[in-house]
Amino acid sequence: xxxxxxxxxxxxxxxxxxxxxxxxxxxxxxxxxxxxxxxxxxxxxxxxxxxxxxxxxxxxxxxxxxxxxxxxxxxxxxxxxxxxxxxxxxxxxxxxxxxxxxxxxxxxxxxxxxxxxxxxxxxxxxxxxxxxxxxxxxxxxxxxxxxxxxxxxxxxxxxxxxxxxxxxxxxxxxxxxxxxxxxxxxxxxxxxxxxxxxxxxxxxxxxxxxxxxxxxxxxxxxxxxxxxxxxxxxxxxxxxxxxxxxxxxxxxxxxxxxxxxxxxxxxxxxxxxxxxxxxxxxxxxxxxxxxxxxxxxxx
Length: 299
What we know:
Strand order of the largest sheet: 1-2-3-4-5-12-6-11-10-9-8-7
Number of strands: 12
Helix content: 25-40%
Number of helices: 8
Order of helices and strands: EHHEEEHEHEEHHEEEHEHE
Strand content: 25-35%
Shape: globular
Largest sheet: 12 strands, mixed
Radius of gyration: 20 Å
């Protein structure tokens, strides 16, 4: 018999992480990330048990890429040996109930391109692909970082320039290639989403031109030896000047000096300019994530 319960204790968090990271050992979820997501009032973390043994986990919350819209974010992680036995559907049903209480009518989820089981599962339930992201890594041992800052541009820590970075984000987020239009939300929503406990303050940077923010780049901890470019954005009026490259070069140099071994980022396949930046910097593709939207169960 399958039962679904909410994550409520420290032991439950350990169980949740154990299942989640067994499904995706190449991209383990840090405990701090779970604690951060649980601070959001709309977040719900779930564990599915069969005969007292955890056999799947799920999380749902408002989709942060478009606050206030009709989408809830959904992750369902079930180990391969536990699939095709109703575990995913039990989690999907409970997550759908929660999404309905949030006033949402659709889910947004992300599946690895080589996870045929999950892609088939979602496809049978009416989910459709709306985008695809490359997961790329840079080996810092082989990197020879050189920061080439455009004339008239200064790169400094972002902490004292968040309102300016947010103004750039309003343009950059809206221009992200996606089948679903992305939105920054309010300043508070944007700040809370991007500047949590995993953000590395000294390596989260802005580019200033004439005293105004024209670009920003957020770097976060991913695992003990890997940092992640969470977002790089440049104002429309400043694009084509090498600002995104300079921001990333500065972060590469800083991450290597700080002792990180790898940098990770994700690029939408249709975002050719940013893919070219990362190709020139030496990032190499490992796999892809398929982005899907679909109905709540029974919706």
